[in-house]
Structure formats: structure tokens, C-alpha cells
Amino acid sequence: MDAKTQPQSTASAVTREEVLQATQAVTHRFDDEYFAKLDKEEGYPHDYIKALMDAKLHTVMIPEEYGGMGLGLQEACVIVEEMHRSGGVGSMIHGQMFMMGILARHGTDEQKRKILEEVCAGRVRLQSFSLTEPNAGTDTAKLQTKAWKEGNEWVIKGQKLWTSRFDYTDAFMLFARTSPPKDPAKPHQGISAFLVDKRQVDPTQYSSRKIDVMFNHHTFEVFYDNMRVPETSMIGEEGKGFRYLLDGLNAERIIIASEAIGDGRWFVDKAVNYAKERVLFGKPIGANQGVQFPIAKGYAHLEAADALRWKAAEKFDRNEPCGGDANIAKMLAADASWELANVCMQTHGGFGLAREYHIERRFRDTRVFQIAPISPNMVLNYVSQHVLGLPRSY
Ligand SMILES: Cc1cc2nc3c(=O)[nH]c(=O)nc-3n(C[C@H](O)[C@H](O)[C@H](O)COP(=O)(O)OP(=O)(O)OC[C@H]3O[C@@H](n4cnc5c(N)ncnc54)[C@H](O)[C@@H]3O)c2cc1C
């Protein structure tokens, strides 16, 4: 099942089809060569993002009263899947999608009015999420960045790692410890969430360094050096930031699953087309079971991930608990896209390694889903503990 035949969402079928068409109207203008050039030059996709934002696609989940599309997570899935299916990447707008959810649920009226309206109008890019730290990767609640109050400002000090798109964002969400945990066994207590408007911050109070990674991704190490932000930057209540973070995670898992499914479909299309066209020993290579079975098997795994992704997204849009489904969908989708990346490369033989075929680039792109934002191990930890009721192993 692909985005065109997905189940019903909170919005009407016409609206869903319209969302897909609106996304394709943008994605069809950006081909493999566009992304290959950026990859080679390590360029940032400014034109792509502008086109997506001009089409308001980043506002899909923002309520209409702030100028957003007011649709659900299923429509967000349609958008990011199409972005990946057409050879692009969704990370520049996916953060906006789930961060909006955190803001819409927990932000003050002023934050919502100011930031959400500005984001919808395209005046502000809210593209970064500053959580992970060198000593607190998967163990997020052990973060060491601190924030304390001085007058009517918060002062923030600490080091973050992997804050993607930091140099290209106007505003970002940041997590810092504002008090020690009341119960030492619950380190998530005392962490607060901030919405930082970079335009209000003295640029000498922070610095960033790009991390060189294996694909065209713009991610940064960031140092907050007594960075002062207005007291109104705090989201919701002091010390409740980790709870707000968890609120946003299911949406993130389901959106990432959709991106991996889009990648998987791209690999299936490329592998099938090539297997039909490439003739050796007097017949297309795809006539050999050794070539077609791996594609068929990867496709079957992709369809299973797809079904679970829609199940999770439907539950999310109905406000039902969906943690298990969201995590499993993410893991299955990431596994299927990685399996298909390997199958697609193998199907292409030596040409799979040649840059002009784009396979090796997308192979590098899709590998990240095995690591970020959550690894298969941590999904299995979640399923073992929260779905199966086994003892926590860590
Ligand atoms: C390209 C990229 C972009 C990113 N963008 C962002 C971003 O925008 N904002 C942000 O805040 N973060 C971002 N991250 C961070 C990302 O979420 C982390 O890399 C991820 O949470 C893992 O942390 P780590 O890299 O420190 O690995 P570690 O936490 O050190 O884990 C290393 C390995 O050990 C395994 N492991 C750890 N604990 C357990 C356990 N208890 N049981 C079983 N296995 C375990 C993990 O699964 C992993 O395979 C990004 C990362 C990458 C690579």
C-alpha cells in the first residue's frame, strides 16, 4: 500500500489526495541530479526547503487558527514518504512537524501565536532540536546542559552533539537541566524544554562546529556559553521538559518510519526497473530467482512495515496509545529500507557503486535510520519492557 491508497485519516480522502498532489507538485521539480550535486558539494537544500515551505507543507499539523493546514499525522506521513520516494530527504521539515506538536500542546499562548504564526508564514525556520550530548546519547535523561534563572532571563550552559541544521535555523528547541532530580532514580525529573529564538540571542554566547558525516547531512556540535534567553522561552512548566519530549516521540517514530518506507519504495522502483532492463545470458537479470527473490522479499518486509505504520498513525490521530506500534513500525521500516538498499545495490552490480546511478548516495542516506533517532536495540528494549512486560534490561 502506498500513500495513494492509505487508510482514512481524520481528514477526508480528497484532502489526503490533495496533500499528496501538493507534495508531488514540489518533489517533481527536484530530481536525482539536484540531490547528487548537493551531495557532492555538501550543499544545503535551500531551494527545496523554500519550495516545500512556500507550499505550506511544513505546517501540515499546525492548527488552522495559527495559519497551518490543521491536518493529522497521517497527512504528515504522506508528505515525508513522498519526499523520500522521489529521492529527497524529509529531515528539514520533519522536525518542524513533531516539534509543532510539542509546542501546540504545551507552549504558552504567546509562544504559539508568535512562533507558530511566523513559522506558518514562512518567516521563521524552526528546524533544530538540541537534545543529544556527548555523555548522554541514548541515555538522554543524563544530559548535563544546565539552565538557571538570572532576573528575567534563563542562562544556559553546556555542550550538545548532533544538533542537526543548527546553522540554518532561526529557532530551535533545547533541553537543559533546571534542577536536580527529586528522586535520583528518576533522572528525567528537573529537565526543562526551551524554545530559543536565535534572533533574540547574542551570537557570541553560542558557537557551533559542523560534524563531517558519511552523507549530506548538516549536523553540528553546539556550545552554549552562558547563553541568555528571555524567561518566556521556557515551554510549559519548569522541570517537565522530558515528559513533553516523550509526548512528541511517537509522532517522530511514525514520521521516520514513513521516510524509511519512502526510501524503500525508491529502492524497489530502481531495482525492479534495472532488473527488467539489464540483459545478460540472453535474458533480463530479473528473470533469475536469485535476483528477483531478494527484491520480492524486501518488498514484502516493506509492505509489513507500511501496514504497521498506518496502524500507528491512525491510532495517533485518534489520540489512542500507540507507543508499541510506533516503535515497531519505525524498526521494521528502517530494517526494510536498509535491506532494500543492499538488494538494490546488488541488483545493479558494479553500477550500484557508480555515483551516476544514485544508488550509493541513497544507500548512505538510508543507513542513518538504523541509528537515529532511535536504534533497533532501544526499540526492542521498549517492546520487551512496555509491550511484553519483561523486566527492564538497562
Ligand atoms: C546524522 C545524525 C543526526 C542526528 N540529529 C539529531 C538532532 O537533530 N538532535 C538531537 O538531539 N540528536 C540528534 N542525533 C542524535 C541521535 O539521536 C543519537 O545519535 C542517538 O540517540 C544515539 O546516541 P549515540 O550516538 O550517543 O549512541 P550511544 O547512545 O552511545 O549508543 C551506541 C550504541 O549502543 C547501543 N545501546 C546503548 N544503550 C543500550 C542498551 N541499554 N541496550 C542495548 N543497546 C544499547 C545503541 O543502540 C547504539 O547502537 C543525530 C544523530 C545522527 C547520527
TrEMBL record:
PROSITE patterns annotated for this entry? Answer: ACYL_COA_DH_2 (PS00073)
- The yes or no answer to whether the keyword Oxidoreductase is present is yes
- Give the Acyl-CoA dehydrogenase/oxidase C-terminal domain ranges: 239-372
The Gene Ontology terms for molecular function here are: acyl-CoA dehydrogenase activity; flavin adenine dinucleotide binding
EC number(s) per UniProt? 1.3.99.-
**Any Pfam family:** Acyl-CoA_dh_N
Cofactor(s) this protein requires:
FAD
Which positions fall inside the Acyl-CoA dehydrogenase/oxidase N-terminal domain?
20-122
Q: What class of enzyme is it?
A: oxidoreductase
Q: Where is the signal peptide?
A: none
Q: Could you tell me which InterPro entries the record lists for this protein?
A: Acyl-CoA_DH_CS, Acyl-CoA_Oxase/DH_mid-dom, Acyl-CoA_Oxase/DH_mid-dom_sf, AcylCo_DH-like_C, AcylCo_DH/oxidase_C, AcylCoA_DH/ox_N, AcylCoA_DH/ox_N_sf, AcylCoA_DH/oxidase_NM_dom_sf
> The Acyl-CoA oxidase/dehydrogenase middle domain covers which part of the protein?
128-201
Q: Give the keywords, sorted.
A: FAD, Flavoprotein, Oxidoreductase
Protein family: Belongs to the acyl-CoA dehydrogenase family.
Identification of the protein by name: Acyl-CoA dehydrogenase
